[in-house]
């Protein structure tokens, strides 16, 4: 039973969104699609321990869920030609290899980003349904309480059902009003894959790769949208570092310690070409293109010391003007620390802290700890690292913060025990 549960957990993380998307296309109802998928998972949990796990588990779950939908229609006397056709298709599809339909997933993103929903609800629903994230993980990403996320998701589903929103991509002329939301959720899904907010793994590659794939599909549909190209550029460049960001035992390797020869340089080139494509459209760099330009500065540098930090500070300045926010400002502070020193950066960070920004996030104390350590204010730095460890949800990153605190404590003890010179 335990093996089956682990298999189902892994299956759902990797294929859950595609299964729901396929069912939503069939039923036209997102809520019903999720319910059918969950019922099929329950069947799997009961049957697989005795019968064995099917060779193609994703296809099995989808087929069982489709049968349940047809059974429900039969019970409600909706036996019509559509049902017979779906049943025929089901027989044919179960005999074929499992081939996820990419367009279904993108259609699911567009449905979840319908303008009848608030931006917060769009993001929460997409992360839940497409990203497969738990409400606790979404709450950490959005910096809001878990109960708030739960309420947003429930309300979003009810709103979509009440408005009878069809499960379909909008007409091309309506894409614009949904595009910024679609880009935002794709980026958030990628961000969760790049640095998991919870769990034992620092990176969730399947999630990041899925976001990158969706971005590429979207760029194919909208080749003249500079922000789509900018987002793809950003994700390509960031993903190029995956292999160098974790050790064999899964421990994080910080940027300064990464073996840059292990970066995927062909992927970096793809990202740079996408950024050139965004620039060629001559609309000026937006939120994603500016971040891609910052990522490019890191990608082309041979070391942290040889990085063009002055240019990064300028790019963050532009980003702060375009899309001000505490996370962007905190990242600018890190860049400032490399050009003007930790004192100047600490003033920026302390100003954020005085405003109460990022109070529930590990981001601010982790940066403040680094700056204080560089200034030799070790006891304060230790306190900040321990605070960051208590706030972060990812076990690997928590271990990194605790190790930094222990290292500083050890060094401080050594200095105290050293005889005066």
Structure description:
- With 421 residues, the chain is mainly α.
- It has 20 helices and 2 strands.
- The protein has helices spanning 2-27, 30-51, 57-75, 81-94, 102-112, 119-129, 135-142, 146-162, 175-194, 205-221, 226-239, 242-245, 265-280, 287-300, 309-322, 326-339, 342-354, 363-374, 378-391, 395-417, and strands at 198-199, 393-394.
- Strands 1-2 form a two-stranded parallel ribbon.
- Helix 7 crosses helix 8 (146-162), helix 11 (226-239) runs antiparallel to helix 13 (265-280) and helix 19 (378-391) packs antiparallel against helix 20.
- It is globular.
Derived structural class? mainly alpha
Distance between the termini: 65 Å
User: Which assembly state applies to the chains in this document?
Assistant: single chain
Instruction: Name the helix and strand elements from N-terminus to C-terminus, one letter apiece.
Output: HHHHHHHHHEHHHHHHHHHHEH
Q: Average pLDDT across residues?
A: 85
Catalogue the unreliable spans: 94-102
Specify the overall morphology. Answer: globular
What value does the Rg take, in angstroms? 24 Å
In what order do the strands lie side by side in the largest sheet? 1-2
